[in-house]
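**Discrete fold encoding**
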Amino acid sequence: MKVLRLSALAFTMALASPAFALQAQTTTSAASKPGSAAVTQSTRVTAQITAIDPATRTITLKQPNGHTSSFEAGEEVRNFDQLKVGDTVTTEYLQEITLSLVKEGGAKRGQAQQEGMTRSAPGARPGGTARREVTVVADVESVNTQDKVVTLRGPEGNVVDLKIEDPEQLKRIKKGDHIKAVYTEALAIKVEPAK
């Protein structure tokens, strides 16, 4: 059995690893309207604590399918002493990307990022959330209606070709416009006592 040293965020990400993926519940949705499109994916993983080693802060988790993994919880994992064998650990991981058309003059090429994290209060049940949002605005350099390709120049000067299959979306985009992309990922960890 492999033991990893992980932060609270990495701990949750590890729960979504291939060993745990067999029991993950994933939902995906997509939506579009004139001038915008969005895709969202949410993954939920549940496991039970089967062993805790307080000396090394190692937690062993078991999924309903029998897969187990051990994790070493760093000092940033608050309220470690509240964990008990039999507790249920639930993680939810959300990813979303939205693309929107900004007509000429309505935006400037650039990039911005926001992050935030909350941890449980001292003495409370362990858990927390983390969120990151990256916004990128790219210039529309050209529109090739025959090949259905829009060429974008990003904030670092990099050039990307974006395939647009929907003719209604493609006809709205012109050279000089901007495409705003917002990528969001959010993570929540909740520990519930054994029943």
Remarks:
- The first strand starts at residue 3 and ends at 6.
